[in-house]
Design goal:
There is one protein chain. The chain is mostly helical. The chain has a single domain, classed as Nucleotidyltransferase, domain 5, CATH 3.30.420.10. It has helices at 18-31, 49-57, 76-87, 95-111, 113-121, and strands at 36-40, 61-65. It has a two-stranded parallel ribbon with strand order 1-2. Helix 1 (18-31) runs parallel beside helix 2 (49-57) and helix 3 (76-87) packs across helix 4. It is globular, with a radius of gyration of 16 Å.
Length: 135
């Protein structure tokens, strides 16, 4: 880890498929140097042939599958908890307003490094952050 946790996201109006996952991974790799460890669930779009082929080609990409039905291991659950707290009383008039609100909220969460570290350290993942990053 570079020492600064970050939040990368893309929003889609429909359920994503392997193609969208691979596009996201390629975009992520353009922004990050060195080895990239991605912790995620075992959803179908995450484990298909296209994703496996990308991992074979890109040796610095390491996909770590979280246990099935174990949200306590997923730092993403903390991100969504923070987002839901902000968005709970909203009433978007359409999908575009919802997307704007969600994007604004996720960007706000991304700017708060302490919250991002908290989502990681409060998950049940084994510790992997340097002690200097804990608050």
């Amino acid at each position: 880890m570079r020492g600064r946790p970050n939040l990368y996201f893309q929003l889609h109006p429909k359920n994503i498929q392997q193609t969208e996952v691979c596009l996201f991974l390629r975009n992520l790799l353009r922004h990050l140097r060195g080895h990239v460890f991605l912790f995620w669930d075992g959803g179908n779009p995450h484990k298909g042939q296209l994703v496996r082929a990308l991992c074979r080609r890109v040796h610095r990409l390491h996909l770590v599958r979280l246990p099935a039905y174990a949200p306590e291991f997923n730092p993403d659950e903390g991100i969504w908890k923070l987002a839901k707290a902000t968005l709970a009383n909203g009433c978007p008039s359409d999908i575009f307003e919802l997307e704007r609100s969600l994007t604004r909220t996720l960007r706000s969460i991304r700017r708060n490094r302490r919250n991002l570290r908290g989502c990681i350290t409060h998950s049940a993942l084994p510790p992997f952050l340097p002690a200097s990053l804990h608050y």
